[in-house]
Specification:
heterodimer; A: alpha+beta; Methylamine Dehydrogenase, Chain H; 7 helices; 30 strands; 39% strand; B: 248 residues; alpha/beta; Rossmann fold; 7-stranded mixed beta sheet; 8 helices; 7 strands; binds S-adenosylmethionine; nucleus (chain B); tRNA (guanine(46)-N7)-methyltransferase activity (chain B); transferase (chain B); tRNA binding (chain B)
Chain lengths: 432, 248
Amino acid sequence: MEEEILTEETRREADAAPALISIHPLQKSIALALGSEVRIFDLEKENAVTLTDEACSPSHSDAIRAICFGANGSLFASAGDDKLVKVWRTDTWHCIKTVHSDKRVSAVAISLDGLFVTFADKFGIVWIERLEEDGQGQISVGTKAVPLLGHYCSIITSLKFSPDGRFIATADRDFKIRITVFPKCLPKGAHEIQSFCLGHTDFVSCLAFIHLPDFRQSLLLSGSGDATVRLWDHVSGCLLDTCDIGKQAGLLKSNEIIKDFPAVTDINAFPDGSLVAVVIQGFHGVVILKCDVSSRSIFVAKIVSMEENFTPTSLVLSSSANMLWMVMGATNVSKSGSSELARLLVISNVDKYVSNEQGDCPVILEDKNIPGGEKLLLKLQGSVHLAKQDAAFTAAAAAVKVAMQNLLAKKQYSVEKRDLRKRNRNDRKFKK
Amino acid sequence: MSKNDNKITEGKRQSACLPRKRFYRARAHSNPLSDSHFPIPFSPADTDYSQHYPNFVHSNLKIQFADIGCGFGGLLIKLSPLFPNTLMLGMELRDKVSEYVKERILALRSSNLGQYENISVVRTNSMKYLPNYFGKAQLSKMFFLFPDPHFKEKNHRRRVISIPLLDEYAYVLDVGGIIYTITDVEELGDWMKHCLETHPLFATITDEELSVDPVFELLACATEEGQKVARNGGQTFHAVYRRIAFVE
Ligand SMILES: C[S@@+](CC[C@H](N)C(=O)[O-])C[C@H]1O[C@@H](n2cnc3c(N)ncnc32)[C@H](O)[C@@H]1O
């Protein structure tokens, strides 16, 4: 019986990974991860991309937990529960590197110069690996990364480089954000901690850097289970402003109830912070904030509520196209069979909408008006006409909810269960 | 220390030998850090230290010494009169042990008016929450006396000295600040020395320097654990290092 409880828990945890979305910095391509699958659409050529890989290197076989483009868009990385970190060239969409991690991977980032990939594992260790192809464009397979830094026994939820490349920011489930000097001599690791940004009162789920156009100053945004988005001077660790989404949302739109204590689960910003979009756990819509770098403040600008069944899991703002892309989906929604499906919505002219130039309604693009049109939807969603699959999406919405809860909430064990777990801990078993 | 005080120490020590489970009780009140069972400040600014150091309320002083895994508090009590104007904090994971240290300090304060006002204790997991208590470069001394050895290799990451944790210790230590470690377990001594030696933000302190450091001689004998080792004629192994500035 004891075994049962444990396996059930592990299974639940492995279940239902939320769909992720990321966009090329110049909107040349868009990437969506669902389960073990990476789906890419080339927005310039307007066609679906087929990823290619070395025959000998393994492909993803379990839930992808993190994807990202490098700063200049030439590289893309994907990583997750199968303990693989894969780095792809975005011109050929060929895999140039597969790194094997000892543990599941929870976050990934490419260094600003594109020379390194860094990733965080389930033990809270951040690893780094050099990205280089040898003369023949041959790829080194099965290389091992070196440890860069560590959060003691906490899961790292987000990993980002500061826009000036000086720092690497890591956020964890123990309310911490650590800012570490990104060293020039990497094999020695990153030991000089610039600051801790402390103040969140629940897990930190997401980070985004913003900066003044001339790069003279950059600031850090973070979203948390405490229902706030906070603005930090990451160099000093100073908390500059706190946007209490729950409260502000209530004030702005009293008829629109964002329930209880809504966790912020994803954040994305225009580089200058003029628009910041956040995903709220379980909310059918998104919240758009504005951040003023010079006055160092952040506030809610719009609450966008969408159709009942659309609870996004991930979003991305494209500054060049002035669009907000939102995806909803989760894998292993086994019973309803909708595991392959993700749903995409795009809002255009975001800045005009936020400044109320177009009235109070967001322009949610019709399928045929989305860049790439139906071809893109077919590739990224897995199907074009999702409207007919409402039932499937109701199920997906439920799965997304479970996925986010499992992913972010710390497990609350009853006293008995905790004792049981203690007794069953592997490291204790041999002692008797 | 009075005879009476000693007795309490003995009594408490016995209870400390009981299995740790006894200390592991679920608390009725909910607390902000859901996976632990004691309140943790969200940031260093979040703690009101006037309750810890009532005599220093108006002094604007910051804590400068931290005794990590302070156990029954022997070191704090020895250090207190040596540095009467320095605030020191012990950090202890075990609830009952930290409670005991608290009572011990209060008892000492009331029987020695004006003394022992500069030491206090918190129950916390220092390995997880150190930055919640201390800001950058705040400390000038950190102590790790007779820490738990965690012999098995897969448990080495639970050791209180490790490269990733030294990053955090370097963060809370001011440049020039000193980290003191001692153990009676040779293997652990080698480990701690190796970590400190390898870490780019720490440099060794020569034996000559140590011989004039009044704190150094306390390492082996000030704490309950140290006294136990000494009674049994055990050997000790120390590693004392200085926080140095970061250079690329
Ligand atoms: C062997 S005792 C030594 C106590 C004391 N330093 C002495 O020399 O007598 C180690 C102490 O560290 C405490 N400890 C272990 N891990 C800790 C942690 N993560 N945070 C705070 N205290 C910890 C234990 O509860 C124990 O009291």
